[in-house]
Amino acid sequence: MTSSTVLRKAVETYWAAADVRDWETFGTTLSDDVVYELPQTRERIRGRERYLQFNREYPGDWRVRIERIVSEGDQVVTWLLVETGVEAAHAVSFFTGDAEGRIAAVTDFWPEPYEPPAGREQLVERY
Amino acid sequence: MTSSTVLRKAVETYWAAADVRDWETFGTTLSDDVVYELPQTRERIRGRERYLQFNREYPGDWRVRIERIVSEGDQVVTWLLVETGVEAAHAVSFFTGDAEGRIAAVTDFWPEPYEPPAGREQLVERY
User: Fold this and answer.
1) Domain that holds residue A11
2) Cβ-nearest to B124 among A43, A107, A126
3) What is the pTM for the complete model shown?
4) What is the ipTM of this complex?
5) How many other β-carbons are positioned within 10 Å of the β-carbon of residue B90?
6) Mean pLDDT score, B31-60
7) Residues from chain A contacting residue B90 (CB–CB below 8 Å)
8) Is residue A56 one of the residues assigned to a domain?
9) Three-class SS state of A88
10) Residue A121 lies in a domain
11) Distance, in angstroms, between A42 CA and closest chain B CA?
């Protein structure tokens, strides 16, 4: 397998394991010194143990489903639908890999719904 | 060039043209029946002419810079830093291509800053 394929499989395993709270398998996808960043809150978590704890303790009854996955070289991007009950949220994650094809860095975006600005109603439909 | 390379170049041209408001060049990257979607507002725009008008009329003095681009097959993803004055915003766009390597669909996410929830301060640093 190319390193790109290995990283893509690591990311698929990462989400499948997160979905069922299999933190042992989840941990095998991560580089020892994985770095997690959330640009929206400007939070950063360093290292596998802290990142595992963050995920283990993350509240809520969420499930994840991959809507899109795009992989090139040492980069993978996923767009998730995250089910938390009534409505699905979107999450976008940018991954980079280490030399072994494990996840070296994750940058997450959690875009929230908002009301469209006025002035473009004639161009758009709502769905 | 592979179709993947053609689409990637179309996306690079799309952002370079948007950055300098060259709507003629921007339009050449788009499929006639391009579909633009904003899941956060649940807005959809159909067709090149309406989508060009939407972009021409989009307010503000923004500049865009590609932070990441990931391309695979008929898909491209970009993560942009959008400068609008004081602070840079993030934008993530998922593209798919048509048979000619033009942009057939664009899905944009505009994640906004938010305050981190309490309870994980011991795991994170702020940046």
Assistant:
1) 3-109
2) A43
3) 0.96
4) 0.95
5) 20
6) 96
7) 39-40, 109
8) yes
9) strand
10) no
11) 5
Question: Phi and psi (nearest 5°) for A57?
Answer: -90, 0
CA atoms within 13 A of residue A44's CA, in its CB half-sphere? 9
A76: CATH? 3.10.450.50
Q: How many domains does chain B have?
A: 1
Q: pLDDT, tens digit, for every residue of A49-71? A: 999 999 999 888 899 999 999 99
SS3 content of chain A, % helix, strand, coil (to 5): 25, 40, 35
CA distance B1 to A66: 29
Three-class secondary structure of residue B19 per DSSP: helix
- Strand segments, DSSP code E, in chain B are 30-38, 43-46, 63-72, 75-83, 88-97, 103-109, 125-126
Whether residues B72 and A71 touch (CB distance < 8 A) is answered with: yes
Q: Give residue B10's pLDDT.
A: 98
Other CB atoms within a 10 A radius of the CB of residue A111 amount to: 21
- Specify whether the CB–CB gap between B27 and B10 falls below 8 A: no
> Residues A57, A51: contact at Cβ < 8 Å?
no
Look over chain B and give the mean of its residue pLDDT values, rounded to a whole number. 95
The CA distance from B67 to B90, in Å, is 9
- Given the structure tokens 């980069």, which residue do they identify? A75
Distance CA A13, CA A22 (A): 10
